[in-house]
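FIELD: query
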Amino acid sequence: MNRRKFVSQSSLAAAGVLASAALPAFGTLYNQTDMTAQKDKNQRYRPVSLSGFGGVAAGNGFHENPDSDVNEALQAAWNSGVRYYDTSPWYGLGLSERRFGHFLRNQKREEFTLSTKVGRLLTPDKDFLLKDGLWKGKLNFSYRYDYSASGIRRSIEDSLQRLGLPYLDIVYIHDISPDNGDMKENWVKYFDEALKGAMPELTKMREEGIIKGWGLGVNTLEPALKAIEKSDPDIFLSATQYSLIKHEEALHKLFPACEKRGISIVVGAPLNAGFLAGVDRYDYSGAFPAGTKEKLNKLSVIARKHNTDLRSAALQFSAAPKVVSGVIPGAWNAAQAKANAESFTAVIPAAFWDELKSGGLISPDAPTPVKI
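FIELD: result
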């Protein structure tokens, strides 16, 4: 399976390659299996494509989206070469998984990576409504947390039923994090439950060949760092932590810790839930941190100056570090999905990145994409 990849400017400089002439076009494809064999026979599992598709909108996140629009978005992503799809039982209380499965069942299973999440078990409830209202429309299910070994097995079995697919590639332990409104400071209690139950069970399933990799799907750094210390994860879905707006802590704390263990990062919310693509919304809480809008204005001015699409720059920035194995922007219609996929192959001038660094808008040591 081919995977789209580019090399960051910092890694090329370290290798002494930047002065080379006649580099191939940006977005050159390579065969992931061949490269893995050449690099490290013990390489932990990575998604088969760098550009991915996040499943929040397919769960009616923020607003209701018709089945037809979501299906067309998935088809547009597939037609554009996207081969990594991430969903969760939490997204729309099963709706995102059902919609993903409806589309993906018609594709060759070995050609795409599929990840979902564990930690919440769903129960039929025709009157259930969420307090925070993230998922719109009729849900028909409520949920309870369960990070035990048996709960993880049950969750995976339930997900496979909803998806209608024979196996999963990656499983993320979901939302054990202080930003989870159900947990807050009690997240450590849930983490300890997962440490005794979910983590050894997923490790066992990986060893048995039932899944190819596991990790955490969280919106803060501390749980991921704790999991590295206490267990043996393969991959993290780190959302809201690495974008043009916010990235320093992930770059300097999480990424080095992962690189030491061969763990890769999937970047979730690379557009900060649409904020960097022009949506008046930042991440999932609804609050705009101080200075966020001002930073967006500065980024937009520089992007216009260099005739650069800010969404494309944001997605390529999130994909540039070598530890990143996937970037999963969301989409609820075909135009968005196609635009997201095309952003990974857009040519962005080096002067744009230089100006962001000289202006203090991105970290001076943040990897930035270059043509290869």
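FIELD: remark
The chain has one domain: 46-349.
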